[in-house]
């Protein structure tokens, strides 16, 4: 597809609260008000690719992102495609594969417990690891603790 400068930029996705995913992008440099973008994604490039059902829109009604629910990310490296059109003409498309586990924002640790003993001048801190959709072995998590007076 032609029309240089019309492809989107800064395509990024984030998974949060275990199964929600937001993908966003910037309009192409030469995008006009009648430019519209469409996001498709699926497990493989030519297989079961479906269109976004819940677009995020700018003030002109142009699509600048998508909200997904119930995203499962077991060993998943799906294909993303953003196609566009301007006054009925196809414009540059954008393609990307994303390892979903790499874009998951983990929830904070739960039930943080601190137990200090004056005699030994020591404190112990415990917590529960976050809920996550892809890590089954809880020893995979590392936390950094900052203690302030």
From TrEMBL:
PROSITE patterns assigned: HEMATOPO_REC_S_F2
Q: Where in the cell is it found?
A: Membrane
Q: What is its main location?
A: membrane
- An example Pfam family from this entry, by short name, is IL6Ra-bind
Show the GO MF annotations: cytokine receptor activity
A Gene Ontology cellular-component term = external side of plasma membrane
The record gives the membrane topology as:
Single-pass type I membrane protein
Keyword annotations for this protein? Glycoprotein, Membrane, Receptor, Signal, Transmembrane, Transmembrane helix
Q: Which SUPFAM superfamilies match?
A: Fibronectin type III
Matching Gene3D superfamilies, A to Z?
Immunoglobulins
Q: Does the keyword Signal apply?
A: yes
Residue span, Type I cytokine receptor cytokine-binding domain: 10-102
Taxonomically, the superkingdom here is: Eukaryota
Q: Which PANTHER family match?
A: CYTOKINE RECEPTOR, INTERLEUKIN 5 RECEPTOR SUBUNIT ALPHA
Q: State the protein's name.
A: CSF2R factor
- What species is this protein from? Cardinalis cardinalis (Northern cardinal)
The gene from which this protein is expressed is Csf2ra_0
């Amino acid at each position: 597809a032609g029309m240089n400068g019309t492809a989107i930029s800064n395509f990024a996705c984030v998974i949060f609260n275990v199964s929600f995913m937001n993908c966003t992008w910037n309009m192409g440099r030469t995008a006009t008000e009648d430019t519209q973008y469409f996001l498709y994604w699926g497990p493989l490039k030519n297989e079961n690719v479906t269109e976004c059902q819940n677009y995020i829109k700018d003030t002109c009604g142009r699509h600048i992102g998508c909200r997904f629910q119930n995203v499962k990310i077991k060993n998943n490296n799906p294909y993303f495609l953003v196609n566009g059109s301007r006054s009925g003409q196809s414009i540059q498309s954008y393609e990307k594969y994303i390892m979903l586990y790499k874009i998951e924002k983990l929830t904070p640790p739960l039930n943080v417990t601190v137990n200090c003993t004056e005699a030994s001048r020591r404190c112990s801190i415990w917590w529960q690891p976050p809920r996550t959709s892809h890590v089954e072995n809880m020893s995979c998590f590392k936390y950094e603790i900052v203690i302030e007076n």
